[in-house]
Amino acid sequence: MTGLAATEPTETVHFTEVRTDESNTGTPIHAEYIHLHLPKLADAGYIVLDEQTYEISQGPRFAEIEPFLELVQRHGERLPDGWV
C-alpha cells in the first residue's frame, strides 16, 4: 500500500505492485487483502478499486493517509515483520 503514495493521483497500479510480499498469492492472506482490506479502503475513499482487474488508484481521501504511508515507507525496517 505504501507504494501507492509514489504514484500520481490518476495513475493506476495492479494490487500486486503495492504489496511488499508477492509470495503469498493464492493464500488466505492474499484473499483477505482482495476481499476485505481493499474494499474497506475503497469504501472509505482512500483508494479507488477496480474489482475486476484489481487495479487501484488514489481515492478522493488519499491525501489524509499519505503522510502516514510515507512515514511507514521510510521507517518500515523498524516495524515488526509482516507489518509492511
Q: What is the topology?
A:
Blueprint: E1 13-14, H1 15-18, H2 28-43, E2 47-50, E3 55-58, H3 62-75
Antiparallel strand pairs: 1-3, 2-3
Detailed description of the structure:
With 84 residues, this protein is α+β, with helices and mostly antiparallel strands. The chain has one domain. The chain is 40% helix and 12% strand. The protein has helices at 15-18, 28-43, 62-75, and strands spanning 13-14, 47-50, 55-58. Strands 1-3-2 form a 3-stranded antiparallel β-sheet. The protein is globular. The protein starts with 12 loop residues before the first strand and ends in a 9-residue tail after the last helix. The mean pLDDT is 79.
Q: Strands of the biggest beta sheet: in what spatial order? A: 1-3-2
Which secondary-structure class do the elements indicate?
A: alpha+beta
N- to C-terminal distance: 8 Å
Name the poorly predicted regions. none
In total, the number of strands is 3
Q: How helical, in percent, are the residues?
A: 40-55%
Broad shape: globular
Summarize this structure briefly.
The chain has helices at residues 15-18, 28-43, 62-75, and strands at 13-14, 47-50, 55-58. By secondary structure, it is α+β, with helices and mostly antiparallel strands.
